[in-house]
Specification:
Elements: H1 5-13, H2 22-30, E1 35-38, H3 45-55, E2 59-63, H4 67-79, E3 84-87, H5 93-104, E4 110-113, H6 115-118, H7 121-128, E5 132-137, H8 152-155, H9 159-163, E6 169-173, H10 178-187, E7 195-197, E8 205-211, H11 215-226, E9 232-235, H12 239-251, E10 256-259, H13 265-277, E11 282-285, E12 300-303, H14 310-317, E13 327-333, H15 335-347, H16 352-370, H17 375-382, H18 395-398, E14 403-405, H19 407-419, H20 426-433, H21 439-443, H22 460-472, E15 476-478, E16 486-488, H23 493-496, E17 503-505, H24 510-516, H25 532-549, H26 553-556, H27 559-568, H28 573-576, H29 584-600
Helix pairs in contact: 2-3, 11-24, 15-16, 15-22, 19-20, 20-22, 25-29
Bound molecules: adenosine-5'-diphosphate and zinc ion.
Zinc ion binds near residues 374, 391, 394, 396 and 397.
Amino acid sequence: MTATPHSVLQHTFGYDAFRGDQEAIINTLVGGGDCLVLMPTGGGKSLCYQIPALVRPGTGVVISPLIALMQDQVNALRELGVRAGFLNSTLSFEAVRDTENALLAGELDMLYIAPERLLQERTLDLLSRAQLALFAIDEAHCVSQWGHDFRADYLKLNILAERFPAVPRIALTATADARTRVDIQQRLSLTQAPAFVGGFDRPNIQYRIQPKQQARQQLLSFLKAETDGQAGIVYCLSRKKVEQTAQWLAKEGYKALPYHAGLDASVRQQNQQRFLREDGIIMVATIAFGMGIDKPDVRFVVHLDLPKSIEAYYQETGRAGRDGEPSTALLLYGFEDVVKLRQMMAQSTGSDEHQRYEQQRLNAMLGLCEVTGCRRQVLLRYFGDELPKPCGNCDTCLHPVESWDATEAVRKALSCVYRTDQRFGANHIIDVLRGSDSEKLRRFGHHQLSTYGIGTELSANEWRSVLRQLVAAGLLAVDPEGYGGLRLTEACRPVLKGEQSVSLRKENRPDRSASGASRSRPAPTQVDEADQPLWQALRACRKQLADEQGIPPFMVFHDKTLADMLARRPQSLAQMSEVSGVGDAKLERYGDAFLAVFDDFR
Ligand code: ADP
Ligand code: ZN
């Protein structure tokens, strides 16, 4: 066998150089060793087992719980000229038999199997009769009972070490924390194997968190200014809001589709299919959408409601930019979000310990929203990673937020809450502070309070920001039952007594910052005005080739490959082969079609 990892990288995948730990990982497996790989989404995990599977004799077996993805993964490999197949419960009897025969005949480079299938005695027996290059255990965090993706079948994967001691094993995950890592090592018998632990940073994602004022307008101006026909996801908390937002976006002229668990399975399937296959679809969804979506060119993820934890936020925003190209994560959050989540937590059943844990996770999420420093540093620190310098690619790095000494204002707000008997919500408190003349105030006699009208120096919006930050920081608590009534907590004692000062975040004007943060960088895969016709022609060519085969356009070429092609303007197949992402199989298949596009423009 003459193939080397580097020649496979070039000829099969069309790439010049390995990234990060890829080469060391590949060499470990090619040499017959096991390993554990922790790499962020988009880091390039697949090559780590695909290349050794092609270099070593025999078939590489990939274990993955994401059955819905297998057909696409196999299609993508076949596009590259790799002989790939899969075994799971969706296949017909005949298809299973054909795949099994191909395996035994040594005609498969890669075989994807669902864990429950693998564990059947029949499958283990089959594998023991085939020549195997390696086992890759994808989504390896599924062995951990701590995580949210636990799968009992994964616990039994230990059997691979016992039954196939000579076959190297690689476990891969993008999940960060140390507890999960130890679980994987122990449960998959990898304690002796090297662990390649990459950082968890997703440098191509720009994080932005903006106070919510007019959410729809904020969303619209973001879409208009920055997402020129690109694909993205808009997350909402409720099904109803998903429906309404999708309808409204459609009316505004966007290709927006709804996705939530209440829709018919066929409608969900169809919308997901369109998201994958068509250009520029905006999926408006609850968090039911996303798991197992392997679309590499999702350019933005917008949250219209606050996620419950940093884990959830990171996972959901992580669906943007799997191809490594610049992408945006925009979260809009407001006072109501904080109140709603605090109430949900308070009403949640479960043990005290569980509730405290949830509370801590929410507090960390709120902390991320209110931080005045670099967001990415906070995010990474939460996962145990230190980023030594501010990232330069989050909203607070790009538009530094000022903080102000709010001690005086905070005291006014707190005493106003106290004087109104700790049972009114934010709007009422703000009315009292600003001395509004309302029927309701008079009914409660609040126009006669000593705190009536003592806060005219701040606008209602500014007071909202103050109250939001006080709730986020735990100086005010929200009444769990009723209408968002605010009350004091133990933590405000030193502030009221004048022993502690409070510094708060000064909001940037949302109209500037909601869409403005990116002006300092080029928008994702932005193409010069003059190149637009050629770029659109290349995209149209890709779409046509994809449609002919019933595959998504990114499986023909990623945006990155198309952009590199545009920059190089190849005039021959030899030049075309230099383009990043153009390997031998795709060169032969598609090279001429794209060269013809360049010819038309000459
Ligand atoms: P992960 O599974 O870690 O999320 P993937 O394996 O899907 O990441 O890789 C992410 C993207 O990066 C893919 O488009 C892949 O083709 C590309 N990629 C991976 N390794 C390289 C490399 N060495 N050079 C160029 N592109 C790469
Ligand atoms: Zn930053």
